[in-house]
Write a structure and sequence with these properties.
By secondary structure, the chain is α+β, with helices and mostly antiparallel strands. It has three domains: 4-180, no CATH class; 187-295; 300-402, Arc Repressor Mutant, subunit A (Orthogonal Bundle). Helix content is 62%, strand content 8%. It has helices spanning 4-18, 32-38, 41-44, 47-59, 100-108, 114-124, 132-146, 171-183, 189-200, 203-213, 224-247, 252-268, 272-295, 300-311, 319-325, 330-341, 345-360, 368-374, 380-391, 395-402, and strands at 22-25, 64-69, 75-82, 87-94, 154-159. The longest helix is centred in the middle third of the chain and has 24 residues, at 224-247. It is elongated, with a radius of gyration of 26 Å. The relative contact order is 0.07.
Length: 403
């Protein structure tokens, strides 16, 4: 049998080409703490789940290839390399179900809430999708590089190691809860900007963010694997936009209806350009919904003022210019704004600028002085003082603690 260096080379190749994780587990019984560090977090978040998974691996025999489906529909392959020294390779997680609707039917077999189903969708969209034939070939290539002599291997399938229907175990719900709580922490800086823009009802900025995240593609629409991947990305952003609405206090019923409508449109389309345009319609719908909800108790004049402020935070803003824009006196606008919003116009502008800056600080590539200018504050020292006033820490401290 070959050495660990060969396995690491195979691991790197699979990671680069297929985004498929490969783990080499050595002396499993004496290295549980180390193993726990590098295994997928979903295998280690629940102690019973982790122990049962390890116990199963230990029972595997040489010259067998074990294909496992876990309690949340993810798949792994386990191969015992050395029964005496307890050395193994673990391949996965990945999905075997290429058709999204088939996966939905799998969800519906179990007693899951809508939030749990959405959390699973978010998790599954990041897993590589492979068929059994491809997995079989990958495993054969791995073993061919590991073993110096020809060996016959037997495939053994182990479906659903932990039953979702079991009333005695809540393991699956703990795993799904972990996915859901971890969801927003893992979004990229640009996704965070998109998330913030939607919460602000800023269609233009949200559209610019999305264009960076998912540029228009010229991939052949007949390529099902690529279009499935593209649809999965749109489903992810549909979920992200829905989450933005939830945090703004929008009715769950209304948001779910909007979410389902978008989901149906995504699944019905098999045209890249149509799907690309769909996201901008989604942005408009979610932004309008949030803006209407946030501003529904304000007078038309205050609504216009708030919208103008939120869309022009990077520009110079003052009460006089706002009043001139809407053909009213500065005193009247300031008094009405204070009465309805319970904040002065200047205070509201400052609050929104600091909110936007917290979003931009997530992007470590942006210098803080540039962020200051991007939110309409040309004086960096003033920006720092203002930021500390609202956030109780400097921009640098905030970035250090939150990125």
């Amino acid at each position: 049998m070959t050495n660990e260096k060969t396995i690491n080379l195979l691991k790197d190749m699979l990671d680069i080409t297929l985004d498929l994780p490969l783990f080499y587990i050595e002396d499993i019984k004496n290295n549980l703490k180390e193993i726990e560090k590098y295994l997928p977090s979903l295998l280690t978040i629940n102690k019973d789940y982790f122990n049962n998974f390890i116990d199963f691996i230990i029972t595997t025999k040489e010259q067998n290839i074990y294909s496992i489906t876990d309690s949340i529909f993810a798949n792994y392959v386990v191969v015992c390399l050395d029964e005496i020294n307890k050395n193994y390779i673990l391949l996965g997680p990945y999905l075997l179900i290429a058709d999204y609707k088939d996966l939905l039917s799998e969800y519906n077999q179990y007693d899951l809430t809508l939030d749990e189903i959405n959390a699973l969708k978010n998790y599954h969209k990041d897993l590589p999708i492979l068929n059994k034939h491809k997995i079989s070939n990958i495993v054969k290539i791995i073993l061919k590089n590991i073993y110096t002599k020809n060996c016959k291997f037997k495939f053994i399938e182990k479906n659903n190691l932990f039953n979702l229907k079991s009333k005695e175990s809540k393991t699956h719900r703990e795993l799904i809860s972990f996915i859901e709580s971890d969801y927003l922490e893992k979004i990229s800086a640009t996704e965070y900007k998109l998330f913030f823009a939607i919460r602000q009802g800023d269609k233009l900025f949200a559209s610019k963010c999305f264009d960076k995240l998912l540029p228009q593609t010229n991939i052949n629409s007949n390529d099902f694997v690529n279009i499935r991947d593209y649809k999965n990305k749109l489903i992810y952003y549909n979920t992200l936009l829905k989450k933005a609405g939830e945090l703004e206090g929008i009715s769950t019923v209304h948001l779910q209806s909007l979410y389902n409508t978008n989901l149906d449109k995504i699944e019905l389309s098999n045209d890249f350009n149509e799907l690309y345009n769909l996201i901008f319609n989604m942005i408009v719908d979610y932004c309008d919904t949030i803006s209407d909800h946030k501003l529904k108790y304000y007078s038309p004049l205050v609504k216009k003022a708030i919208n103008h402020i939120n869309l022009n935070l990077n520009n110079d803003l003052c009460v006089k210019d706002l009043a001139d824009l809407f053909y009213v006196s500065p005193t009247y606008l300031a008094r009405l704004f204070k009465k309805e919003v319970n904040s002065s116009i200047v205070e509201y502008i400052n609050t929104q600028r600091i909110k936007q800056s917290t979003c931009l600080l997530k992007d470590r590539n942006l210098p803080i002085h540039q962020i200051s200018q991007m939110v309409g504050i040309s004086d960096y020292n003033y920006f720092s003082r203002l930021f500390k006033k609202y956030m109780n820490k400097t921009p640098s401290q905030y970035r250090k603690n939150n990125t």
